[in-house]
Design goal:
extended, 14 helices, Lambda Exonuclease, Chain A, two-stranded antiparallel sheet, 8 strands, 417 residues, alpha/beta
Length: 417
């Protein structure tokens, strides 16, 4: 199987999007954020690739301006094709001006002649062997920039145009940077993995966050990648569902209008064999209203129960009455057991094994506390015994990125590998 970090990331974020993109091959116009990110990446490549005479700031801005698509390019017909996106003239102006501002500040802080650039948009391939199946898989990618530092080591730099910066802990666990480290080491084996500096440069904030990887972490990354590839292949071979995984990232997904998790929001026509969209919207509204009322009533029940409990304790009562009935206070006791003695009693009766069945709730808690290799081993030991759906509700419909300002996830970028 041949794949890349960006497709692996897509699968981990949402299997349904992976299916649309990689299996069904449904092509869609890039989002505004992706177009913007790609142009910024291309301009930064231009800024660093000329040597010994690097471009001036005016030349860099001119390069960005000349490649900025005309307004008409963004205006696409949406009436008959729900997958097409539309930019307004105001939105285009905002993105363009933000790009110019970011490039000016970046140039002032990162004059290209101050760096020893080894390669730009450096392509690499990593071959991974599956010990179980004997298959080999190729992961391809592109590294934005590779520098040689004054102390003779190397730094991988990946540009980010997103609004939000992740924590240092997230950078330390970033799969993309781990794969880049592996890719550079495969290309130049003489470079020690521990000596490779890995950096994400957040251009909007003029901040660079760096990390490194150990050989043990790289081996862990290989196992994670192999596990993900195996999961993809299993779904394909066994014709399993690639279910959607709704998240804040849906707000930048071009497949929203055809995704099962969002399609209803865009539906305009009525199917003859089901209720109309208006009827379903009415049903959904009533359902959510009742759910909201039930939550309010549960809170009220808690307050009433506490008042009644205090009264019964004060009056030394175990039962109180009203015209509708009565409420009783019962003592519930929980016990712990001497399991060694219990085993002696139950084993001859053949009942000891029955009480040793795993408690899934406790198991899930324990899985968060044990090492990753142990979690992986437990996952391999599980079997699907039951499958059903539940109705999860939300009282807010997020229709676009502006509705999700308080969320923590990053928006998508352009210039991915």
């Amino acid at each position: 199987m041949r794949t890349s970090y960006s497709t692996i990331e897509t699968y981990l974020q949402c299997p349904q999007k992976y299916k649309f993109q990689e299996i069904d091959r449904i092509r869609v116009p890039k989002s505004r954020e992706a177009v913007f990110g790609t142009l910024i990446h291309g301009t930064l490549k231009f800024m660093f690739e000329r040597s010994p005479l690097f471009p001036t700031l005016d030349e860099v801005i001119s390069h960005f301006r000349e490649r900025w698509p005309a307004h008409e390019t963004f205006l696409t017909e949406t009436k008959n094709d729900p997958l097409k996106r539309q930019w307004s003239e105001a939105e285009e102006k905002i993105f363009f001006e933000e790009g110019v501002r970011m490039l000016k500040r970046f140039y002032e802080k990162n004059a290209p002649w101050n760096f020893h650039i080894v390669d730009l948009e450096s392509r690499f391939e990593v071959v991974l062997a599956d010990e179980k199946s004997g298959e080999t898989h190729v992961l391809a990618g592109i590294i934005d920039r590779i520098d040689k530092t004054p102390d003779g080591t190397y730094e991988i730099i990946d540009y980010k145009t997103s609004k939000r910066m992740p924590s240092q802990d997230m950078i330390d666990k970033n799969l993309q940077l781990s794969l880049y480290s592996l890719g550079l080491h495969k290309r130049w084996p003489h470079i020690n993995i521990e000596d490779i500096k890995l950096s994400l440069y957040f251009i909007k904030h003029e901040e660079k966050i760096s990390t490194k990887r150990t050989s043990e972490q790289i081996e862990k990354t290989k196992k994670e990648l192999m596990g993900t590839i195996a999961s993809i292949q299993e779904r394909i071979m066994q014709n399993k569902e690639f279910e959607p995984m709704p998240s804040i990232l849906c707000n930048w997904c071009e497949y929203r209008p055809i995704c099962p998790a969002w399609r209803h929001l865009y539906r305009k026509t009525k199917n003859s064999d089901v209720k109309s969209k208006d009827e379903i919207e009415s049903a959904v509204g009533e359902y959510l209203l009742i759910k909201k009322e039930s939550k309010t009533k549960v809170k009220r029940l808690d307050i009433l129960e506490e008042d009644i409990r205090r009264y019964m304790e004060q009056e030394n009562l175990t039962r109180v009455f009203s015209d509708q009935g009565y409420i009783s206070k019962k003592l519930i006791q929980r016990f712990s057991y001497d399991l060694a003695k219990v085993k002696e009693i139950l084993s001859p009766l053949g009942k000891w094994e029955e009480i040793l069945r795993a408690d899934e709730t406790k198991l899930k808690k324990i899985l968060k506390e044990i090492p990753e290799h142990a979690r992986a081993a437990v996952a391999e030991a599980r079997q699907l015994t039951k499958e059903y759906t539940v109705m999860a509700t939300s009282l807010k419909v997020i229709k676009g990125p502006d509705d999700a300002a308080d969320e923590s996830e990053d928006e998508p970028e352009g210039g991915e590998i």
